[in-house]
Design a protein that fits this description.
427 residues, mainly beta, Neuraminidase, 7% helix, disordered N terminus
């Protein structure tokens, strides 16, 4: 066969392939990146399939003029800076923004400060230009706080050792009343204690992380309030375990159509690069999600082999995998009106970024589309550019909490970069 006909044949085959792929993309199930997507479609490697790397990122800070990169159709701007490890943001009823400044205290560790700021700062945008023109210290004297919640005439704070509430008046710029501890919790370990109220405001939910990676000291059997989500009345009474076996649930939010509680969970480490994926899941009352004995349903952790087969048999799969070691911490369903229609009701996720991996993953804000109350497509990058040098494991910052502001923009707390970023739709 001549070169001419070979070339014509190759061209025709290429066209046919393109057409075939186009047809497949329109009529076949969507394709997901490895380690992501619906749990029932997930193919996981064997434990220890790859070595477990330890690559703590080095945060070098944001150089003058550099910012994260927003996805097409979006813009990013600086909302606030000169903060001290901002972890979460919260929108008060009058649209004021609270920023919690906190870090796990880890004396002797070189990459950690000796003391947490233990502070909440208030920002107010009085002229609605997307830039705060009032900044006030709202509350101090806390203990490694994370979660915030305004409900009725109270402001609730999730300290690492319990939930405290303070008298709150709409519009005040500083808490001046004495706090009341309404729930004691075990401190330390995965120290975050995030808060969420049900849409009716009748119950409060508290996410409590595990003490260790896989319960090395078997302490969970003694205190099962860890590695789960608790439910209580607004006054702290009638506390019960709502769901358990969630290693480190942090971000929580309510899916707007079904009014169902969802959370993002940091899964266990040291099983290899691709185990175990962090995940996004609905939280089913009374359910057990596997930790520490199994993962993604009934996949037994070899380090816990033979332990509690009764619980392994009850373990359910989470809904949606987010990739291994992404450190997915923030969660916000989009309930604003400023973003394009395809983002309405979908989930924005703050990924703090990996340490237990040979290559950096996470370090971004991602989006999972929803339809009919369930994830409905591959995960998408919305805000990137936090990685400075992959070869040196250097980062400019690390995103954590994500919050839909009163004007429909998305606020992103960058704890290591000490900034809060604002994402808006391009006009």
């Amino acid at each position: 066969m001549s070169k001419f006909y070979l070339n014509r044949f190759a061209l025709a085959a290429g066209v046919a392939m393109v057409c075939s792929c186009a047809t497949m993309s329109n009529n076949s199930p969507q394709r997901y990146a490895a380690g992501t997507g619906p749990a029932d479609q997930l193919q996981l490697p064997a434990p220890f399939d790859t070595p477990s790397a330890r690559n703590q990122s080095k945060v070098i800070g944001w150089p003058q003029g550099r910012m994260p990169k927003a996805a097409p159709g979006f813009e990013v701007s600086l909302f606030a800076d000169k903060l001290d490890n901002p972890r979460e943001t919260y929108v008060l009823p009058n649209k004021d923004i609270l920023v919690v400044e906190s870090i796990r205290e880890w004396p002797g560790r070189a990459d950690r400060p000796e003391k947490s700021a233990n502070r909440i700062t208030l920002f107010r945008d009085t002229d609605n230009d997307g830039k705060p023109d009032l900044r006030e210290t709202f509350l101090t004297g806390l203990n490694m706080p994370e979660g915030m919640l305004s409900l009725g005439n109270w402001l609730y704070v999730g300290n690492t050792d319990g939930v405290v509430r303070y008298p709150y008046r709409a519009g005040q710029t500083k808490i001046d009343g004495k706090g009341e501890k309404i729930l004691d919790l075990p401190a330390g370990g995965h120290h975050t204690r995030t808060l969420s109220a049900d849409p009716a405001g009748k119950k409060i939910y508290v996410a409590v992380g595990s003490a260790t990676n896989i319960d090395e000291d078997n302490g969970w059997e003694k205190d099962q309030r860890r590695a789960g989500i608790l439910e209580m009345n607004p006054d702290g009474s009638a506390m019960r375990i709502f769901a358990k076996g969630l290693r480190n649930a942090v971000g929580m939010d309510w899916e707007p159509k079904t009014k169902t509680l969802w959370t993002v969970v940091n899964e266990r480490d040291l099983l290899g690069d691709e185990l175990v994926p962090d995940y996004l899941t609905s939280v089913k009352e009374g359910a057990f999600y596997g930790w520490p004995y199994s993962y993604f349903g009934q996949n037994v952790d070899p380090r816990k082999k033979g332990q509690r087969p009764d619980l392994v048999a009850k373990a359910i799969k989470p809904d949606y995998a987010l990739g291994s070691h992404t450190a997915s911490l923030g969660l916000a369903f989009y309930n604003g009106k400023a973003f394009p229609e395809r983002y309405q009701g979908g989930a924005f996720i703050g990924m703090h970024g990996s340490w237990n991996r040979s290559k950096m993953v996470g370090y971004k804000v991602a989006f999972v589309p929803f339809a009919n109350g369930k994830p409905a497509g591959p995960i998408e990058d919305i805000l990137t550019g936090f990685i400075a040098d992959e070869n040196k494991f250097e980062a400019y910052g690390r995103p954590v909490g994500v919050t839909v502001a009163g004007d429909g923009s998305l606020l992103v707390a960058d704890d290591s970069g000490n900034k809060v970023w604002r994402i808006t739709a391009k006009k």
